[in-house]
UniProtKB/TrEMBL annotation, chain A:
InterPro entries: Bact_Polyamine_Transport, MetI-like, MetI-like_sf. It is found in: Cell membrane. Residues 61-250 form the ABC transmembrane type-1 domain. It is a multi-pass membrane protein. CDD domains: TM_PBP2. Keywords: Cell membrane, Membrane, Transmembrane, Transmembrane helix, Transport. This is ABC transporter permease. The keyword Cell membrane applies. Belongs to the binding-protein-dependent transport system permease family. CysTW subfamily.
UniProtKB/TrEMBL annotation, chain B:
Keywords: ATP-binding, Cell membrane, Membrane, Nucleotide-binding, Translocase, Transport. PROSITE patterns: ABC_TRANSPORTER_1, ABC_TRANSPORTER_2. Part of the ABC transporter complex PotABCD involved in spermidine/putrescine import. Responsible for energy coupling to the transport system. SMART domains: AAA (SM00382). NCBIfam families: potA. It catalyses: ATP + H2O + polyamine-[polyamine-binding protein]Side 1 = ADP + phosphate + polyamineSide 2 + [polyamine-binding protein]Side 1. Its EC number is 7.6.2.11. GO terms for molecular function: ATP binding. Belongs to the ABC transporter superfamily. Spermidine/putrescine importer (TC 3.A.1.11.1) family. Residues 6-236 form the ABC transporter domain. This is Spermidine/putrescine import ATP-binding protein PotA. Gene3D superfamilies: 2.40.50.100, Nucleic acid-binding proteins (2.40.50.140), P-loop containing nucleotide triphosphate hydrolases (3.40.50.300). The complex is composed of two ATP-binding proteins (PotA), two transmembrane proteins (PotB and PotC) and a solute-binding protein (PotD).
Length: 263, 359
């Protein structure tokens, strides 16, 4: 069949261009020789060398990774247990409780940041990694909670019953049946949560304390002194990592999709 | 059959406002194939779930070999279930699915592998160990589900409409096979179905359920040929229910007055002359005569051919509708024609005994 020209194709192309052109520009200019990001004067890996030598930035990157990992791990445990527990109980205010568990996503970050600042000061907690992890865990929980809840809703209840029927106690059933079946949801929720934690500026600025910087906070601070192509190089590296993770995720998704057919 | 295996004592269950079970009392013998037959919503699945321990009754007791197991969780009862949708664990292969019960009992790996192999032979799925459930057809999933339950050598196997999702041909094959398995292993089967044909083909005894109550318990022959209530006659045998008044009672036969005609029927206990009676006449036993003076006057209203059978719809003078069916085409009868409906005395069974007589 001959392909027909369609206006929708033009629209699609335009939108994709609009979304990805800035990214392409950043990647291209990360290889720019010049310090100015106005014109491309020649290919160079110089900014990657500068990036590799920048201790502050690397430290901030390390902080962000640790923070993301810790908060998405604790959020994964809390969110998963919450969703599993909620799926089993039945009481009148359940809908309200579930709603309350997802509200942090809807509260503006600036308010959440303020609230955490005031709250942690009241508790006299030292600002640093601990306060960051607590704050980030709080807004990470809803992502995992919602993902797992949706997965549980689509899960056949008789699978757990079958395990009980075959002699497994409640705990054994949870680890043999429930956990493997909701694992994809926990994983995708955690990835989302990690991404949210990794790029958070607003809440982090309120609770990070004077000495500790996360990567986004550091980048944001550099804006004041002017952006160098070093930041472009950093963005490119992060983009590459994200593309890699997405590829792996896609692969994992296909693999777990094989099971889902049977449900 | 040697002795009682399971006893239900006055089991009651409600979901919110609705009473699902209104006092079920029943005993199941060792080694028998018992079927719960009923329309959807009659409470048969709930009864089965209570026996399995997946649901707790509000009232009553479940006794397994004389011991009260009402409050025991499902994992501590020697009862296994084949679920309606198979409920195979999607993340485990066939071998892991079937061996799950033995793994929980911490049997040695070599023993588990051997017994899984035996089970696969028994359900004729040799060599399927490494397949995932998603790669199996409906019938194969069914066999795996049965193997997974049977490997634990339960005292009682519960089957909740296990053939419901299969096509007709495969269903017939599986019926024979289930019956073969049950005879071979000697395990007591409690089978649930809404398909009367399936129940009659497979069971030693049938329990007909209706709205949370037991309507009739008996052998397939008793249920089919001697239904006690109009409901059973209609549900199991697609029978016509015809009302009349008892005129004369004999040893084996009674005479019944229906629409000014004298018809004969089987005798039943506790019957008195002058009382109202309901007769159940199965469709295939209702004959349509185009000549003669005997039988009920009727008009043919419709004729249709369904599943190899000719269905003739009749309307009596009182407006009651009857259906007669027989195999093969019969071109002589046309809608609008006046005919007479006749039956042999042994084919008309009085139903709804006492309760209707009082009315």
């Amino acid at each position: 069949m001959k392909k027909k020209w369609k206006w929708s194709n033009l629209y699609l192309g335009f939108m994709l261009l609009l979304m990805y052109l800035p990214l392409v520009v950043v990647v291209v200019f990360s290889f720019n020789e010049s310090r100015l990001s106005a014109e491309f004067t020649g290919f160079s890996l110089n900014w990657y060398k500068v990036l590799a030598a920048d201790r502050d930035l690397k430290e901030a990157l390390g902080n962000s990774i640790v923070l993301g990992a810790l908060s998405c791990l604790s959020a994964a445990v809390i969110g998963t247990l919450g969703a599993v527990g909620m799926a089993r109980v039945r009481y009148r205010s359940k809908g309200m409780m579930e709603y309350l568990s997802t509200v942090p996503i809807m509260i503006p970050e600036i308010i959440l940041g303020m609230v955490f600042l005031v709250f942690f000061s009241m508790l006299e907690l030292p600002f640093g990694m601990i306060t960051l992890v607590i704050a980030h865990t709080t807004f990470c929980i809803p992502y995992i909670f919602m993902m797992v809840k949706a997965r549980l809703a689509g899960l056949d209840k008789s699978l757990e019953e079958a395990a009980r029927d075959l002699g497994a106690g409640p705990v054994r059933t949870f680890f043999d049946i429930t956990v493997p079946l909701i694992a994809p949801a926990v994983l995708s929720g955690s990835l989302l949560a990690f991404a949210m934690s990794f790029d958070d500026v607003v809440i982090s600025i309120f609770v990070n304390g004077p000495r500790l910087n996360t990567l986004p906070v550091k980048v944001y601070a550099q804006l004041k002194t002017g952006v160098t192509p070093e930041i472009n190089a950093l963005c490119t590296v992060i983009l590459v990592v994200i593309v890699l993770v997405l590829c792996i995720w896609n692969f994992v998704g296909k693999w777990t999709g094989k099971h889902r057919k049977s449900e | 059959m040697s002795g009682e295996l399971l006893e239900l004592k006055n089991i009651k269950k409600n979901f919110g406002e609705t009473d699902v079970l209104k006092g079920i009392t029943l005993s199941i013998q060792k080694g028998e194939f018992l079927t719960f037959l009923g329309a959807s919503g009659c409470g048969k699945t709930t009864t089965l779930r209570i026996i399995a321990g997946l649901e707790a009754p509000e009232e009553g007791q479940v006794l397994l070999e004389g011991k009260d197991v009402t409050d025991l969780p499902p994992n501590r009862r020697d009862i296994n279930t084949v679920f309606q949708n198979y409920a195979l664990f999607p993340h485990m292969n066939v071998e892991a699915n079937i061996g799950y019960g033995l793994r929980i009992k911490k049997r040695p790996k070599a023993e588990i592998r051997g017994r899984v192999k035996n089970m696969l032979e028994l359900v004729q799925l040799e060599g399927y160990e490494k397949r995932m459930p998603a790669e199996l057809s409906g019938g194969q999933k069914q066999r795996v589900a049965i193997a997974r339950a049977l490997i634990n050598s339960p005292k009682l196997l519960l089957l909740d409409e296990p053939l419901g999702a299969l096509d007709l041909k495969l269903r017939r094959t599986m019926q024979t096979e289930l019956k073969r398995l049950q005879k071979k292993l000697g395990i007591t089967f409690l089978y649930i179905t809404h398909d009367q044909e399936e129940a009659i083909n497979m069971s030693d005894r049938i329990v007909v359920m209706r709205e949370g109550m037991l309507e009739q318990i008996g052998t397939p022959d008793e249920i089919y040929n001697h239904p006690k209530t109009a409901y059973v006659a209609d549900f199991v045998g697609n029978a016509n229910i015809i009302e009349g008044v008892v005129e004369e009672i004999g040893e084996e036969k009674i005479r019944v007055q229906i629409q000014g005609q004298r018809m004969e029927a089987e005798a039943a206990e506790g019957m008195k002359a002058g009382e109202k009676v309901k007769l159940a006449v199965r469709r295939e036993n209702l004959q349509v005569c185009t000549e003669g003076e005997n039988g009920l006057e009727a008009v043919v209203t419709d004729k249709s051919f369904q599943g190899g059978q000719l269905h003739v719809a009749l309307q009596l003078k009182t407006g009651e509708e009857l259906v007669a069916s027989r195999y093969g085409m019969d071109a002589r009868i046309v809608p609008g024609q006046k005919v007479r409906a006749v039956w042999k005395p042994e084919h008309a069974v009085p139903v709804d005994g006492k309760q209707e007589a009082e009315a």
